[in-house]
Amino acid sequence: MSIYQELILDHYHSPHNSGVLQKYDADVSVANSSCGDKLRITLKVRQEKITDIAFTGEGCAISIAAASMLTDEVKGKDLEAVTGMTKDDVLKLLNIQLTPTRLRCALLPLEGISKAILSLKSTML
């Protein structure tokens, strides 16, 4: 097993930022209908920065590990920087080859975080 596969299993079995924030500014749920993965993401924002983020959900090792790694990555970042994140940023974090089906699993957390930021921006207008 490669070190990257071990890292993914580590994040799957002991995900970082697991749970629901008590006080949050955004709360979204996303699902991957093709495999059944589901995530709920809550985040807190202060002065255009993500100060805290948490997630709960059910899913495969790839989606849970990606959520764990991505929530670590975005904590403390400006909303604009996070909004600009792409598929390549997620793949760089995971550092493994993915099939198209597994790619959808890996991108589910980014979809949730993006939706949370969009919901925040719509309430700020």
From TrEMBL:
Pfam families: NifU_N. Gene3D superfamilies: 3.90.1010.10. GO terms for molecular function: iron ion binding; iron-sulfur cluster binding. InterPro entries: NIF_FeS_clus_asmbl_NifU_N. It comes from the Bacteria. This is SUF system NifU family Fe-S cluster assembly protein. GO terms for biological process: iron-sulfur cluster assembly. Residues 4-119 form the NIF system FeS cluster assembly NifU N-terminal domain.
